[in-house]
Amino acid sequence: MGQEAACRVSTGTHTSEGIAHLEPAELRFKGSFALRIPFSTITTFEAKRGTLHVTHAGGTAVFELGPLADTWALKIRYPRGRLDKLGVKPDSVVSVLGVADPAFREELSSRTSRVSVGRTRKGSTLIVYGIDTVKQLDALTRLRATITQDGAIWVVWPKGQKALREDDVRRAAKAQGLVDVKVMSFSDTLSGLKLVIPVAQRAKPTKQTQ
Predict the structure, then answer these.
(1) Which of 54, 63, 183, 195 is 20 to 30 A from 34 in CA distance terms?
(2) Is the pLDDT of residue 155 over 60?
């Protein structure tokens, strides 16, 4: 998930108090007017004296963030990628189910060659499971049995759905022997919740005899 801060924003033609959000790939603001500034449209930015000046395709916006101005400028300069947030490493074994996102698959292939799309691979260190109904959460028990003991299942679902919310995912996970440890904005349209096997329930490694 991103960060948010109450602040004042000026664009040259408008000034308003409101809430600014720093997401993995964009800046957003909502007050008496709204702004959405994808990082890809930013041409220059600078933090000075508690303000963050951002010039982008739509003009220049000044965020009065106080001490956060320098921190947010660093995060814009060095954004943390989606794969890093998911925990994908070069040796990860990843299974992707129900996620129709070609860009995500390309990202994965640039990080690890051990990717299974559409099928669950036994011994996966990471499963990305896309759903759009509560009923699909019944599969968590089966998926739990296919991950490594320290592996994870990322459930991703459409944002803004009243029929499928974060609490629904969390309750289903708990009922099926999983705990949630992290949330993230998977994309502009999808939210994500990371589920793992509780440490107390993980099988202990078998000691080898010599």
Answers:
(1) 183
(2) yes
Q: Residue 187: what pLDDT? A: 85
Beta bridge partners of 27: 22, 37
Residue 62 has pLDDT above 80, yes or no: yes
Same domain? For 47 and 87 the reply is no
List of long-range contacts for 164-171, beta carbons under 8 Å, 24+ apart = 164/131, 164/132, 164/133, 164/134, 166/191, 166/193, 168/134, 168/137, 169/137, 169/193, 169/195
H helices within the chain, ranges in order? 68-77, 82-86, 102-111, 140-144, 166-175
The predicted pLDDT at position 101 comes to 84
Residue with tokens 């996620």: 99
C-alpha atoms less than 13 angstroms from C-alpha of 165 in its C-beta half-sphere:
3
In a domain, 207, yes or no: no
- pTM higher than the cut 0.70: no
Degrees to nearest 5, angle at CA 106 with 131 and 74: 90
Average the pLDDT over 154-169 and give the result.
95
Q: What is the pLDDT of residues 3-22, one digit of tens each?
A: 899 999 999 899 999 999 99
Task: Take residue 191 and report the two structure tokens written for it.
Answer: 């939210």
Q: Structural domain tally of the chain?
A: 2
3-class state of residue 101 by DSSP: coil
